[in-house]
Amino acid sequence: MLQGGEPPVLAKEGRWCEMSVFEAISLMVSFGIFVVTLLAYINSGRK
């Protein structure tokens, strides 16, 4: 049976998470593609 203890620390001294430059750029590119796709979909409904 588990007992007490401290909760896990998810953030290290003000940082959200450890990401490499590649992961950060990939995330930004993916979000950009999503926004462009969403805008194209919204715009296609107006024709």
Structure description:
Helices cover 51% and strands 0% of the residues. With 47 residues, it is mainly α. 0% of the residues are buried. The mean pLDDT is 82.
User: Roughly how many Å apart are the termini?
Assistant: 63 Å
Mean pLDDT: 82
Strand content: under 5%
Portion of residues within helices? 40-55%
Shape: elongated
- Alpha carbon gyration radius: 20 Å
Number of helices: 1
Low-pLDDT windows of residues:
none
Supply the helix-strand structural class.
Answer: mainly alpha
Order of helices and strands: H
The description of the largest β-sheet is: none
Number of strands: 0
Keywords: Membrane, Transmembrane, Transmembrane helix
Protein name: Holin-like toxin
Pfam family, one: Hol_Tox
Transmembrane segments: 20-42
Topology:
Elements: H1 21-44
Quick summary:
InterPro entries: BsrE-like. This protein is mainly alpha-helical and 47 residues long.
Keywords for this entry:
47 residues; mainly alpha; 1 helix; 51% helix; 0% strand; elongated
